[in-house]
Amino acid sequence: MAEDLQIIRGSKEEQYQSLLPQIRGLLEGENDLVANLANTAAALKEQFGWLWVGFYLVKENELVLGPFQGPVACTRIKKGRGVCGSSWAEAKTLIVPDVEKFPGHIACSSSSRSEIVVPAIRHHEVVAVLDADSIELSQFDATDQQYLEEIITLLNF
Ligand code: SME
Question: pTM above 0.85?
């Protein structure tokens, strides 16, 4: 049984420090990818209250919407399109402080102002991306990148 998530206040660093072992605990002993992605998205949403957080999975050379928390979102994204498709094409984390200044940004929600996308890489190929969107400008920084990249490595893609 999953226990209630312990939500703490504090600096972003402290919040991730508290969340990380809890996510490890949620994933422990479960190898179903969809279940693990769903709980990871829920844990991040509960702790940080971002507008949207979830996963897109590479399927037949497209990103297809996976488990997420937040408003309904576009279901398919092509390689190189938007922030997610660019992160996939470049195989690196992208931090976008102002989505209106990102050429080709795909506005799934008109409330989104900033975004981070972290690719999951397996055998040198991107197999999925973690996407988080905020209603605040400049929400995401190197601390988010560091911890979200660590969280991605905990998932058994
Ligand atoms: N904004 C993303 C699309 C996904 S949604 O935000 C959930 C993009 O530009 O790739």
Answer: yes
